[in-house]
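#help-structures

NK: newbie question. if I give both the sequence and a SMILES, will the prediction place the ligand too? trying with magnesium ion
OV: yes, paste both and it writes out the complex. here, I ran yours:
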Amino acid sequence: MMKKTVLNTDYPVDENVYYEDGQGQFYRLHNGVDIIGVTKQFRTKKSTVQALQEINLHVHNSEFISILGTSGCGKSTLLRMVGGFETPTTGKIFCHKKEVTRPGASIGMVFQSYTLFPWLTVRENIAFGLKELKYHTPSESKEIVERYIDLVGLRGFENQYPKSLSGGMKQRVALARSLATDPSVLLLDEPFGALDMQTRGVMQELLIDIWQKSPKTILMVTHDIDEAIFLADRVVIMSARPGRVREILDIDLERPRNYHVKSTPAFAAYREHCTEIIREESSKLLVNAHAG
Ligand SMILES: Nc1ncnc2c1ncn2[C@@H]1O[C@H](COP(=O)(O)OP(=O)(O)OP(=O)(O)O)[C@@H](O)[C@H]1O
Ligand SMILES: [Mg+2]
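OV: that's the protein plus ligand as structure tokens.
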């Protein structure tokens, strides 16, 4: 069979494109995100940290994936590489059959530390990416920004600077900023970590609603097992450092979902399964720590 290997170009959605890994192995690429044989090492003057080992994952177009894993297993590193903010040591990452080599407009990211520009107001922070894109007329941009200010509940704070906001409010600005550009891939690193339970629930529903109205491929890191299951089509559970994909769990719960689903036996079974694995991985960390 003739196999067309990848060049950095936009392919029609149905075109078959393959990546050849240099050793004669071909991988068919997909719409969505392809993570192929990715490892990551961090070298500092004193030591080398193997953060990720051999990650292989196909995230389907418009799929919602949650990533669970113990602290330090490389979740943020993986997301930053998919976003083009960091380069894999080995392996490749493709987004819509195109190699990710740098950050781009089609991928939106909310960082774990919800970095906002401190010299810009809430409104200006949300508008930031839109200005760069230049897709919209000024009045369209304005309308989008105002809509997101309302959607994330920050009306009344739009002229404030980040330093005068709470952690949860900053997270909501960061989420609005990443959504405003309508990226086809959205990377969320613990986007609701600083929110109280009620606001978190509201934001989860808002995210699902936006995802259903304008489908995007979402990769979301969370430490909250219920949140991971409730939102996702599949939950990826990573092993303790060096991070690997330990298990991929299909979440077979009907959509649209509302919070009642959390009290069903099916949900409880998923929860128990995830909790068990995470507990196992966390105890490995402790054993390693005691062993020196
Ligand atoms: N820039 C860096 N330089 C050196 N080591 C790094 C760097 N970034 C991450 N690491 C190391 O890589 C490993 C994975 O870090 P990462 O931040 O990806 O973990 P995580 O799974 O997101 O953890 P958490 O759940 O605590 O956010 C850790 O051991 C970390 O110390
Ligand atoms: Mg992290």
